[in-house]
Amino acid sequence: MTHGRFALVLPLLLASSLVAPAADRKVDLSKEQVGKSPVAFEPIVGTWIVAEDGGEKVIRVDGSPWKAAQDAPTRLLASSARRLYGTTNEELMDNANQFAYYPVAVAKDVSAFENGTLRVKFRTVAGDLDRASGILFNVKENGDWLAVRYNDTENNIALWEFHNGLRRPVKFSDRAKKFMLDRAAWHELKLTIEGTDFKAWIDDQLALEYTLGSEPGPGRNGAPPNPDLFPANNPVLRAPFKGRVGLWAKTDTTSHFKDFVVSAK
């Protein structure tokens, strides 16, 4: 699906919203049908289905259709990047149009999360190009969003913004600290927002802190920051940080999600 599809679907979701999120609202998957598209989440980009994992119903983002659609040059690029740069090749991939693909699914009954906590449990299942699982938030009606994610190929946490069809990094966790998670196990990703104060945790370890709406620092190697990272140029980086929430992944990632909880402050 395209960015345009996002902009078309979100106004309908906003119009049909029930109420703002209440304290400790857990998305209920008990009545979902395995093998079907989820009812609790609206898949906007990518392939999202209900699956069963360990006797529990979970939301599965399935990266295999994306992988199957790759052509030979794309596969060559991915293979070459791995050989040249190991796992730290995210910038190279993002600069290639073939990799501009971010599966997202929006929680239907959470109309406007602003201050509080979002948390979800995830388990990495597969992914050759990427194994990234995240929380989507501050989703605007035009399809712009913010997301925090764990990357199983880089073993880090990052905050990203998406504006006018392009994704850019806002802040990474400390590059000297790697979060080496057991891929076979379930892990919890959590974020908190209080006004402009943003924090992210992985398995109860504080991984990232940031003041939303801050002016960007220098880019790589001291280069001037991208103009789109200045809040004056980018509405998704300006307060109030209020919008829809959901799940996020990248390219051919296959991950399972459960226990998505919204706690309003």
3D structure, described in words:
With 265 residues, the chain is mainly beta. The chain has helices at 3-15, 64-68, 72-85, 90-94, and strands at 25-26, 41-45, 48-53, 56-61, 104-107, 116-126, 132-139, 145-151, 156-163, 166-172, 187-194, 197-202, 205-211, 244-249, 254-264. Strands 1, 3, 4, 6, 11, 12, 13 and 15 form an eight-stranded antiparallel β-sheet that branches. Strands 2-5-14-7-8-9-10 form a seven-stranded antiparallel β-sheet, with helices on one face. Strand 3 (48-53) and strand 4 (56-61) form a beta hairpin. The chain is globular, with a radius of gyration of 17 Å. 38% of the residues are buried. Residues 14-22 and 95-100 have low confidence and may be disordered.
